[in-house]
Structures are given as structure tokens and as C-alpha cells.
Amino acid sequence: MFKKTIIAGLVAGAFVPAFASAADSPHSLTGNMGLYSQYIFRGLAQTDGSAALQGG
């Protein structure tokens, strides 16, 4: 009995993501941030050896 319950749960769980799909939004917002030990642009250090925080 326990084996049948486990198998039924796995089969039911496999189909849950198909029913729970969200609607696609026409808008999106993305971003990123990073903390780096030194910022180098074209071979020259831009942070005087200090840490640099970058985002975009």
C-alpha cells in the first residue's frame, strides 16, 4: 500500500508545474550588482587598489 501511495504522489507531483504556469508579463525588469577587488579598464586601475561596487 505504501509503495502505491509513493508512486501516486510522484506521478501527481510531475504534473503540478504544468498546471501552475504563470502568465507571461509584457514587461520585465532586470539588474545586477557586483563587489570587485579592483576595477581595471584598458589595463589601468581605476580604483586606486580599493574595492569597487558596480551595478547596472
Rounded mean pLDDT score: 75
Distance between the termini: 55 Å
Shape summary: elongated
- Count structural domains: 1
What portion of residues is helical?
Answer: 25-40%
Report on the biggest sheet: 2 strands, antiparallel
Binned strand content: 15-25%
The run of helices and strands is: HEEEE
For the largest beta sheet, what order do the strands appear in spatially?
1-4
Task: Supply the helix-strand structural class.
Answer: alpha+beta
Low-confidence stretches: none
Regarding quaternary structure, how should these chains be classified?
A: single chain
Number of helices: 1
Number of E strands: 4
Radius of gyration from CA coordinates: 25 Å
Short description:
With 56 residues, the chain is α+β, with helices and mostly antiparallel strands. The protein has one domain. Helices cover 32% and strands 21% of the residues.
